[in-house]
Amino acid sequence: MDQDTVGFERTARHDGAVSTATRGPRARFRAMEEGTAEDWAVIAREHVAFSAELPERVLAHLAQLAGSAGGFPVDRLTHCLQTAALAEADGRSDEYVLCALLHDMGDLLAPDNHGALAAAVLRPYVDEELHWMVAHHTVFQGYYYFHFLGGDREARKRYEGHPAFELTAEFCERYDQRAFDPDRPTPPLEHFAPLVRELLARPRRPMGG
Question: What pLDDT is recorded for position 11?
């Protein structure tokens, strides 16, 4: 584990990012139907502060992917970093690079549905087509291996005609499936930290949108 990754883990464990919600002011209701405008003013203020800490929580979670390989040629963090680096080198938009970096962040918590978890995190911050790309990339990535495991490599065809079909197929072909090279120079997580902090600080959609 490199020094930058250790730093992100220390941030998650020791600074205020995780513990803020436990020490701030609290609403007084016992059931939501009892809530008052004063209660919800407290919650709204705390939500703003908690949301501002999201980039650090995401970076800390990505750091936890280091060392977890699941049999692949590189660990999960390296795969995410290589995917993002390939997209960045191709001149993709910042939102696209963010999606490339986070596309497999759900591996630890949702190994059988990790695309949906990553997409849920990204949804307020990226456009609809990029959100769809991340949510469905697992089926499209299956083109490269499902048939070796008794599955249908053409499973992605069920989505033919969707506006983001080609975008998602290209993501997997150009970046995702090529990002397993232990010999490729790979930028550290810190390289992408400014991008994460900038984009996850400005949601495109309001709460509930």
Answer: 47
What residue has token string 């490339």?
Answer: 100
Q: How far apart are CA 83 and CA 178, in angstroms?
A: 8
Tokens standing for residue 90: 């191709």
| Token pair recorded at residue 8 | 């992100």
Percentage with pLDDT > 90 across the chain = 80
**Residue 161, by phi and psi: left (phi above 0), alpha (psi -120 to 50) or beta?**
left
* Phi, psi of 52, deg, nearest 5: -65, -20
**Distance separating alpha carbons of residues 141 and 116, to the nearest angstrom:** 14
Residue of 78, 70, 108 whose CA lies nearest to 2: 78
DSSP, res 43: H
pTM of this structure = 0.86
CA distance 177 to 166: 15
Spatial CA neighbour of 168 closest among 127, 194, 139: 139
Q: How high is the pLDDT of residue 3?
A: 45
pLDDT value at residue 143: 98
| Percent of the chain whose pLDDT exceeds 70 | 87
